[in-house]
Design a protein that fits this description.
The protein is of the alpha+beta class. It is built from 6 helices and 4 strands. It has a 4-stranded mixed sheet.
């Protein structure tokens, strides 16, 4: 696997979007659109199991980048013309971005343990 992994949330980075997402996760978590966020974060903080796993990846020399979808689209638009459905986890190779975990797989996961097992 490549040493650079990109995690792209199905959320925008502006303050209004963040506030709406926060409220949505609390009021109606079953209909929240970002499975990656739901798996890796609780309502207020990062999931402790996820944080420990993320730190272990860093210790193994992986470079991790986390993006809201608007940030990812801005940074990678000119470099890679792909259209993705978010959330998604990608790996960056010398020539391209490759899907590591698709939106369908993320949406089907029910626990952070499933995500960790998939990335291990």
């Amino acid at each position: 696997m490549s040493k650079k992994i990109l995690f792209i949330y199905n959320a925008n980075s502006d303050t209004g979007s963040k506030m709406l997402d926060f409220a949505h996760k609390i009021v109606s978590p079953d209909t929240y659109d970002c499975a990656l966020c739901s798996l890796t974060h609780g309502n207020f903080t990062e999931n402790k199991q996820w944080a420990a796993f993320r730190e272990s990846l860093l210790a193994q020399g992986y470079e991790l980048e986390f993006f809201h979808k608007d940030e990812f689209q801005k940074k990678y638009k000119s470099k890679f013309g792909h259209k993705y459905i978010y959330p998604i986890i990608l790996v960056e190779t010398d020539y391209d971005l490759e899907v590591l975990v698709s939106d369908e797989k993320l949406n089907a996961m029910e626990t952070v343990e499933a995500l960790i097992a998939t990335l291990s």
